[in-house]
């Protein structure tokens, strides 16, 4: 596909780059301490938190992938988007008070406090590796591919490097505050740009939902698929999606760091529930447009070409630039969040414990240096992914290996007070090894279950390991873990004597009703 981008559209994209870079560098002038760099000085309000969670989660590959999947195989994969509200509700009810009252900077720090240093280091190393080699490099690679569909003459490694350098500069300079403020702008651009495409397409189908559904193959608008479905079989909807969502939204430093930077528990809880509402939007502005494209552009052979086709053939001059800026925004949001979270983990979990007398100035210096180093690693690795397509597909499934034991030691660990450091550590080790074994059996065609079902089975196995090892080894100090395990009083934390319309519990009820309504609608 040849580029049909006008000079005006290109000018809009270039202007966007300069605005984001300026904001990041302007914020960097006020970044003086480690808490400023890694947690934005713990000053974030609910609006910034929600918009940043949304923007960091939506990558360029997500936009292209959701539209492409809706076009080729149906809307079943959209459940990962609009059902995100459920794990975000768990985060609001249970983990926000535990994390914020512990005054942690990284999620692995919580494991050290609840269990021991072994679990912290194991989890931190796994998170850094997956964030840089999968999240960051993957975002750069996918982003470069997306941009190449609009600008065919772009060279992969140069595009990846430019994206990495721009995100790396403002992230190293301004830290998390630069990340969340640019994310907020990027989220608005993304929603407006993709929303315009959706509305124009719907207009071309006479604003008739019946026509949208009838133009698609049978079952295209159903999220409950047979057990042999390759995309997402119905057991995986129950056994895998909830745990993958919990890991991503409650234990992933890359995502949860902006919540740790909240002004207080109230703002954090409002922020994650706001993000839950925002996560419903991609269904309407990314997924359904892909499905609507079937009747308007029936001859698109490659699903990845669906979104670029919609942008270049549906939108007028000027709006193409806005939407393209939204796509680039999504790429940058993923990259900047990943770089900042990885540098936070390295400095707080590894450098700071070794250098007991480290000053705030040195913390900032190490944070900025590690951000730039990770930027270079991700930029160098991103172009290599095209040479290992099969391997990269396997790496995406590696999340089904690392997630189950992590989900168990957090979810079970905050309720099961007998759970101890030995139980947590051996759950991580043995649960991960068991996941790798299943992965190997799959490659030799000796195991045939969908990876989402594997997640459910590995969660069950990891739970057994955690409980059995904990029972067979000494109990933890009850007094030490008292503030690190769940209490029912946490539900009202920060929300005593507030008006009904400000109570996050009421917001949760509305969100659950919305998600349930969508599930019934798309059953």
List keywords for this structure.
523 residues; mainly alpha; Sodium/glucose cotransporter; 2 domains; 23 helices; globular
Written description of the protein model:
Helices cover 72% and strands 0% of the residues. It is built from 23 helices and no strands. It is globular, with a radius of gyration of 22 Å. The two termini are 36 Å apart. 51% of the residues are buried.
Spell out the blueprint of helices and strands.
Elements: H1 7-28, H2 34-39, H3 46-57, H4 60-72, H5 79-82, H6 85-102, H7 107-114, H8 117-150, H9 156-204, H10 209-214, H11 234-239, H12 241-251, H13 253-260, H14 265-278, H15 281-296, H16 306-314, H17 319-354, H18 360-381, H19 389-397, H20 399-411, H21 421-443, H22 451-472, H23 504-521
Tell me the total number of β-strands.
0
Structural class per helix/strand content? mainly alpha
- Could you name the ranges where pLDDT drops below 50 across 5 or more consecutive residues? none
Count the helices. How many?
23
In a few lines, what is going on in this structure?
With 523 residues, the protein is mostly helical.
